[in-house]
Design a protein that fits this description.
Number of strands: 19
Number of domains: 1
Radius of gyration: 23 Å
Oligomer: single chain
Strand content: 25-35%
Helix content: under 10%
Structural class: mainly beta
Largest sheet: 5 strands, antiparallel
Shape: globular
Distance between the termini: 66 Å
C-alpha cells in the first residue's frame, strides 16, 4: 500500500501522477527473473481508490491522506486482501491478479468500501471521494496500524482495528468479503483531546490457545491522552476478550468489547507511548516498546512455590 504523491507545481498545488507511478494504491508485486540471472519486481495488479490531485477540503490536508498509513493484510485461508488508511475506510480485494485488475474500478472490490475506524453516520457512500474530504465529528480517525486478523472458533474470521481518536473495533469477515460490525471498546485513544484530536491510535496483536474457545485476547497499546505525534505522552497496555462481550453496552448503545486488564492496574506502573510500535507476544510474555529507552515485559504472576515436605517430617501445633 502506497501513500500520497506529494509532487507539486510552482504554485504549490498537487499535480497528477506520472504514468507508471502508483501512489494511493494497493499493489500486487510479482518477481520476474531475467535471462542473465538478475531479477526485478513488477506491478502486476493494483487498485487506486482516489488521486491526491482530486482531493481538497477546508478543514484538513486531504491531499495528504495516505492510503499506505497502515499495511495490507492477506487473509489466510481465503482469496481476500484488506487494507485501510487515513480515511478510515477499508477496501476488500481479491488477491489473484486477473480479478484484482489494474486501475480504479470499484467493481473489482469484493464488497463496497465501508468506514472501518468510526461511524460517520448512515447512508454515506465511502466510494464517493466527496464524502471522504470531511471531518464528520471534527476529529481525525486515521488508521496507522494494520488490522489484526484472527479466526474465532465461535464467530469465524475476525478483524480488529483501532483508529486515532476512536475505540478498538471488532468485525467479522466472510469469505465473500462481507465485513460486519461486532463491538467496540469503551476506551478511546487520545481521549479528551480538543480540536482534531491526537495521533496515532492503537496497535494490536491477538493471542489464543490454539483453537480452544474463549481463549482469544486482543492486546493493544495506545496513548492514554494527548498527541503522541507531537509530544511525549503516557501509554497504556490493555487486554480485551476477543470473543465474549461485556454485559453492559457502550453509552451509545453499541455492543462493548470486554476489558480484561490494563497495565495501569499495576501500582506505580507507567510508560511513555512509542508510536507505531505494536506489542510483541513471545513465550507467554507481552513485550511493550516504550519511549523511555526500555522494553517492558509483562507476564502472569505465579503463586509462590512451596516444596513438598519430606515424608519423615513431624509438624506439630505451634511449629513454623
Amino acid at each position: 500500500m502506497t501513500g500520497n504523491y506529494g509532487v507539486q507545481d510552482q504554485t504549490k498545488n498537487t499535480i497528477a501522477p506520472r504514468p507508471g507511478d502508483l501512489p494511493e494504491s494497493l499493489i500486487k508485486l510479482g518477481y520476474t527473473l531475467n535471462n542473465d540471472g538478475t531479477g526485478k519486481l513488477v506491478a502486476e495488479a493494483w487498485f487506486t481508490p482516489f488521486r491526491d490531485v482530486d482531493r481538497g477540503g477546508p478543514d484538513d490536508d486531504f491531499q495528504d491522506y495516505d492510503l499506505g498509513s497502515a499495511g495490507p493484510v492477506p487473509l489466510p485461508g481465503t482469496n481476500l486482501l484488506v487494507g485501510a488508511g487515513k480515511d478510515g475506510v477499508v477496501y476488500v480485494l481479491p488477491r489473484d491478479t486477473t480479478s484484482m485488475g489494474q486501475g480504479s474500478d470499484f467493481g473489482k472490490l469484493k464488497k463496497p468500501p465501508i468506514f472501518f475506524t468510526y461511524f460517520p453516520g448512515s447512508g454515506i457512500d465511502a466510494a464517493d471521494i466527496r464524502n471522504l474530504d470531511k471531518l464528520f465529528d471534527g476529529k481525525t480517525h486515521h488508521l496507522h496500524a494494520s488490522p489484526a486478523f484472527w479466526v474465532d472458533p465461535k464467530r469465524g474470521p475476525m478483524l480488529f482495528c483501532w483508529g486515532e481518536n476512536e475505540s478498538l473495533r471488532g468485525w467479522t469477515i466472510g469469505n465473500d468479503g462481507t465485513i460486519s460490525f461486532v463491538a467496540k471498546s469503551a476506551e478511546v485513544a487520545s481521549a479528551g483531546m480538543p480540536g482534531r484530536g491526537g495521533m496515532p491510535g492503537g496497535f494490536l496483536v491477538v493471542t489464543s490457545n490454539g483453537n480452544t474457545p474463549n481463549t482469544g485476547i486482543v492486546w493493544a497499546t495506545a496513548p492514554v491522552s494527548g498527541d503522541a505525534n507531537k509530544h511525549i505522552v503516557e501509554g497504556v497496555l490493555r487486554a480485551y476478550d476477543a470473543t465474549n462481550l461485556d454485559a453492559t453496552p457502550n453509552a451509545d448503545g453499541t455492543p462493548k468489547l470486554r476489558l480484561l486488564w490494563q497495565s495501569k492496574q499495576i501500582p506505580g506502573n507507567t510508560f511513555n507511548f512509542s508510536k507505531f510500535c505494536p506489542p510483541v507476544v513471545a513465550d507467554g510474555r507481552i513485550l511493550v516498546p516504550t519511549y523511555d529507552g526500555r522494553v517492558d515485559i509483562y507476564t502472569l504472576i505465579s503463586p509462590p512455590h512451596t516444596p513438598p515436605l519430606p515424608t519423615n517430617a513431624n509438624i506439630g501445633a505451634g511449629d513454623d
